[in-house]
Write a structure and sequence with these properties.
about 375 residues; alpha/beta; Rossmann fold; 2 domains; six-stranded parallel β-sheet; 13 helices; about 35% helix; globular
């Protein structure tokens, strides 16, 4: 079936989780036989060309002036594309100031799918909610809730971030995923770093405060003070917290920061490490007061690479990673708990056992293939 995928605030090719997600879903649905046309901001380099007899038709379209807050201004352009293509499905990647895909779908009577991985509802103390209330009729809330009401399907990892009156029949709850064909325990290619220690923990991410990368550096410092210089860390990525992380790592010879790395090189990065660390800080991001609504790509890619995962035992995380089976979960309120988890995983036999189970679960539950099969099933149900 013909699908128009509106994700114009995501850059493809790109290195962010959103870019990875959009590319994987577009290619995954095409691999299942759909004719996929994807609207995205063009990145540096050519659009992906996955080895397939049914490639994605990439359409360059950016938000006006590069501002995703103005995505809705592309509604007219998308409506013209919808009128020409006559897709059966218009799928939109949700954003607070979006709605251009769902709105334009009416031009062809297409069914609509809304991908939601950020809260539609407001958290307590939200500045956006305060502004909305000052406008008396709360137009932003009403617009977001209207989008959810108009969508035929809503795909999300957590129903808790949707309006309370969203019918359960239209919610497809599914995790995002990892490319388990590329993320392998023995992925080919040289990593962009030299291993700094006998046991290497890796963090890969965007270095935002709630990602907690600095906690990994502090844990390694704590271990070094105790004489465990055999346990080191590699931190891959870029973002606003990177300078603070680099400052914390000063004087630690067994800690490396690489800066941004193309996503195509991430499998070799993870393959060169021993432990995958996701030290999230729930309290550092106010929207997380609604719960851990993320579907964390880093965790799924660690698992696909056969790495045992170390993460805090909070909210949904224990349902994603079983403590003692696919990784080690720690109490983030307990000082030194992260360091102790890393120290336990200096045991190669334990790492191998947990990493093997992590890989098996990733292939079974957290692959992009599994995600797209679930999405395909839901989309086809709209046509019956």
């Amino acid at each position: 079936m013909r699908i128009l995928y509106a994700a114009i605030d995501q850059t493809v090719p790109g290195t962010t989780g959103g870019s990875v997600h959009v590319t994987a879903v577009a290619e995954g649905l095409a691999a299942l036989g759909h004719e996929v046309h994807a609207l995205v901001t063009p990145g540096d380099g050519p659009f992906p060309s996955a080895p397939s007899s049914n490639p994605v038709r990439w359409i360059p379209m950016s938000p006006p002036f590069g501002a995703k807050q103005l995505r809705w201004m592309r509604t007219g352009a998308i409506r013209r594309i919808v009128t020409t293509l006559q897709p059966a499905i218009v799928m939109e990647r949700y954003y607070n100031f979006g709605g251009e895909g769902v709105t334009a779908a009416a031009a062809a009577g297409a069914r609509t799918v809304l991908e939601v991985n950020a809260p539609v509802i407001d958290h307590d103390g939200s500045a956006k909610a305060r502004i909305d209330r000052m406008l008396i009729v709360e137009p932003m809330r009403r617009w977001r809730e209207g989008l959810c009401a108009r969508a035929d399907l809503i795909v999300t990892p957590s129903a808790a971030i949707l309006p309370r009156d969203t019918p359960s029949r239209k919610i497809v709850r599914v995790e995002w995923g990892a490319d388990t064909d590329r993320f392998l325990p023995d992925a080919p290619g040289p990593p962009p770093f030299e291993r700094p220690a006998t046991t290497v923990a890796i963090f890969a991410g965007a270095f935002r405060s709630w990602h907690g990368a600095i906690n990994l550096v502090r844990a390694v410092r704590e271990l070094q003070v105790r004489g465990r210089s055999d346990i080191g860390a590699v931190l891959v990525g870029d973002g606003p917290e990177l300078p603070a992380v680099q400052n914390e790592a000063a004087g630690l010879p067994n800690v490396i920061t690489t800066g941004a790395v193309p996503h195509a090189d991430m499998p070799s990065c993870l393959s060169a490490a021993d432990i995958g660390v996701a030290p999230f800080e729930m309290g550092a991001h106010r929207p997380l007061s609604l719960g851990f609504y993320w579907s964390p790509l880093k965790i799924f890619e660690y698992m696909a690479a056969g790495l045992p995962v170390v993460a805090p035992a909070v909210d949904r995380i224990p349902s994603l990673v079983a403590d003692g089976r696919e990784g080690l979960l720690y109490d983030p309120t307990n000082p030194g708990a992260l360091a102790k988890a890393l120290e336990r995983l200096s045991d190669p036999a334990l790492r191998r056992a947990l990493g093997r189970a992590a890989r098996e679960r990733a292939v079974r539950e957290y692959s992009w293939k599994a995600h797209c099969v679930a999405l395909d099933r839901a989309i086809r149900s709209l046509q019956t």
